[in-house]
Amino acid sequence: MAIEGPLKELSIHDVCQLLDLSRKTGTLRVTSELRQNAGTVFFEEGVVVGAEIRSNPHPLGRLLYAAGKITEEELARGRGAQAAGDSRRLGEILVSQNAISPRELARHVRQQIEEVVFELMGWSEGYFSFEEGRGGEWPTEATIRIPTSLLLMEAARRIDEWSRIEKKISHLGIVPRLGQEPAADGPLDLLPTEWEVLSIVDGNRTIRDVAATLGRSEFDVAKTIFGLASAGLLMLEDPSGDPRGYAALPSMRVRRDMLGALVDWLVRTL
């Protein structure tokens, strides 16, 4: 049996919370015509075991390469195996070729899953549906189990941090440019992640582009750029004025009639 409805009546945060509490196994699908995008989250007994999104900003191969975990040659060899007919997923191929360890693969796959879930939680319009049951193996690169409660807590933390960041960065289409170096008696004391961001800021890339180039999460890159801009190292320009580059997480208010119907469904199926 499936449950479904519009996001304006029930947020993904609330749906995930219900699936967590009721320890459901199945597939949650979310679509947005406004964004022309769609995402899927896989649950096993209330735990998130996989997630994917149509507009994946961080494909696994590019993510591993940008993080320095595999070489360009290893990535090309893995993709070549797929092109030659190997039906396995890229991560499995890279592990079999000893390009990356299963542990490193699992860590980066987890990062991918988290970013997809956080992206979907930011959608305040669209439609969701949950189909209970499992029809076979989950389509994931590695065996991952992420407690849904941890994802919900991290989402709440991001809401709090973004309320501070958005005072300077209203969306991910903002373009950072090098500013004037602040006066200092010695060299700048920056973290490696901050130097990494500064090294590719060229006045043309948006914050979203910077994150994609580095293979890092858009939230983390926005937070780093916010700090650098606050220190005067970067200037921020908005070329479009489009506020939809980063949607705030939706309100946690829920229509009682729809929530009541979902609770009844959960009770009947337990």
Textual characterization of the structure:
- The protein is of the alpha+beta class and 270 residues long.
- It has two domains: 2-159 and 248-269, no CATH class; 167-237, Arc Repressor Mutant, subunit A (Orthogonal Bundle).
- The protein is 44% helix and 16% strand.
- It has helices at residues 12-21, 60-66, 72-83, 90-96, 102-121, 148-165, 192-200, 207-214, 218-230, 256-269, and strands spanning 2-6, 26-32, 37-44, 47-53, 127-132, 146-147, 175-178, 234-237.
- Strands 1-5-2-3-4-6 form a six-stranded antiparallel β-sheet.
- α3 (72-83) crosses α4.
- The two termini are 12 Å apart.
- The model is unreliable at 242-256 (pLDDT under 50).
SSE layout and pairings?
Elements: E1 2-6, H1 12-21, E2 26-32, E3 37-44, E4 47-53, H2 60-66, H3 72-83, H4 90-96, H5 102-121, E5 127-132, E6 146-147, H6 148-165, E7 175-178, H7 192-200, H8 207-214, H9 218-230, E8 234-237, H10 256-269
Antiparallel strand pairs: 1-5, 2-3, 2-5, 3-4, 4-6, 7-8
Helix pairs in contact: 3-4, 6-9, 8-9
